[in-house]
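Justification of resources, computational component.

The compute hours requested in this renewal are based largely on the per-chain cost of generating structure records like the one below. Each record pairs the submitted sequence with a full structure-token output. That output is archived, and it is also reused by downstream analysis tasks.
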Amino acid sequence: MENILRPPRPPTAGDAPAQPVSIGSPPPAKGFGIADLKHYFHIVVKRIWLVALCFVLSLTVMVAILVRQVPVYRCRVTLLMSKGVPMPYSLRQVESQPMGDYLATQQLIIQSGQLISRARARLNKPAEEVSRTITRISVAPVGKTAFLAITVESLDPVLGSDMANALADEYLDFKAEERLNTSQATVVSLTQQANRVHEELKRAEERALEFARQNSVIAIQERGNVAARILGTLSSQAAQFRTQKMFLEAQQPLLSRASDEAVLAALGPAGSGIPGVGLMSIAAMGVETNAPAPAVGGLEGLVEYGVVQQRGWQEQRRVKSLLEARLAEYRTKFRDAHPLVQQTMRELKEVQDALNIELQFALRQYYAQLEALSIREQASKRVEQEWEEEALEVSRKQQEYQNIQRNFGRLQSLYDLAFNRLKEIDISVGIEPESVQIMERARPASSPVTPRKLQSIFIAALIGLGVGLGLVFGLEYIDDSLRYPEEVTDLLGLPFFGLVPAASWDPEDLRTHILSNIDQKSGMVEAYRNVRSALLFSVAGSQSKFIAMTSAVPKEGKTTTCLNLAVSLAQAGARILMVDSDMRRGELHKFFGLEGGRGLSDLLAGQAKPEAVIQRTGLPNLDLVATGPFPPNPAELVLRPEFKAFMDHARRQYDRILFDCPPVMAVSEAAILTSLAEGVVMVVWAGHTSRKLVQLAAKLIQERGARILGCVLNNLDFSRVGYYYYSTYYGYYDYDHIRESKEDAKT
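The structure output for this chain reads:
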């Protein structure tokens, strides 16, 4: 134990520096386990009063509602709906309505105001009473069946069942009236339509007879056939005339390029007795009208082209050739005045004149024939147009006659349809198109449907528990204080040294706060012993001789914790020196009833020696240095060389030196003192101090180069964290002292 309490040596420059703890770093990922369930259970137990309050309030409100709520009874009538063929209202085709649409239609009919009013009147009760008692009427199909359920909710079960049965009976009466009205309306409608069709049929028949009298139907058909045949003949003749005219016109280019003899040969003899050729068809000869003219001109060209074919013309041409040869021969022998020459020239001239006369006549005959063909073509077109008009007139009358016949047939079909429908209605008068049966009548309900007391109370209990648990976890989430060891290690990243329970200290007698004056078997003593063990058995704590005790803000119990930790270390045999370094509000000397007039401030100011300021506390192995007079500049005093000289002196005389430092967030010298110490122990008021302030204070200490050894959760209140949760850490210790202290304080 002595080796643990007294570190073998202070840390030297050769030692590996301790790694600072990262403040605010995210905790390592952990799985959900039994510890988490216990944690949530402790959260609920800590504020179980809030859950109970919400539970009781919810039940109270629900009971009050149930007491004031009037019971409502539900009665139901079940109808079986059978859909038949609907009654035809007119001559149009009647389509069957789908079953789903049919049931939806019947629902609306039953829920209509007319039917509900008839059902109310059927009850023979005042309308105001019925309206006040009946709260709801609904109609709905039963699943995917042909059943309809009429449900009536009422304050009176008897009146509710009577209303449901009356509504079903009125619906049956309504359907019977509807069938009767439908049959009568159908007969009237079909009769009116049949009479109207009959009148139209008579008019159509008279119109057909009148048309037949004015126009012979057979003559119209014959005229149509004759017109068609004549139009065919006229069209053929017009085509022939047009073709002949085209043939004649096609000869004009050939005649204009040929010689007179060739023209005469092409057109044929003119009746002068001179043998020649007749008018020939070039197309009939197999020559196209646009064929090129013969390469050789004159008569030879026409003969070569195939126009001249008669032997008389060739003989006449031979005679002309002989005369021309004879004339040429005579001119070689005789002069032109010679009788033989003159005779031959006269004969040759006569032949040529005859050919010219024949040529002129043939040309006149050609143009006359061309004009005649034009006249015939135009006449044929005019006649053809007249017959076309005749054919159109005949076709119009035929179409009119067909329309009359078609309309007559349509009206006859409509009349037959109306007559057959009337016969069908006579046959189906006794057949019901729809069948509605009451399968189950309504009976007075034995128990109300609302309020459902057990269900409502159960729901209210669930709501109360849910709201209570929500508030509990909400308040737990809003609470920013540190309450559990896991929060110290996970959120702050600091080692956890222990829990110190809250105690009802006597503020007037500070000596009762000292650990040596408390029952050594109490849980309070064991708590400080656990803090001592955590400090001594930690690697950093075992090597730290100069330890600074501080907190984030004032009033967190760091002075009491520093005092009792020093007492616990002294009880273990270590020589301990307590230094009250809070030179603004230090009161550590008051716990021992010592004087605080001379102390640390005198020592740092150079006005006293260490031996003069160290006081005996009356406890073995425990000495104290009070604050002394409060100086105006504590931060400057801490930085003086006298502080280092004092520390060197204390190291030689004591095993450990505990400094009770001021709060880090309150004064500046706290950060200086912690940076000069070899280790820092932070004291946090459990369930009170904000974790953000603690994180900021720890970060400030580490930024000054100090090493935080661990954290102590002080002044733990069982009512805030739960006694069961605290007992999981120190359940094997006896806390009767704490309970007795609380009872004494209450007394």
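Residues 1-22, 89-94, 269-312, 731-747 have pLDDT under 50 and may be disordered. The first strand starts at residue 73 and ends at 83.
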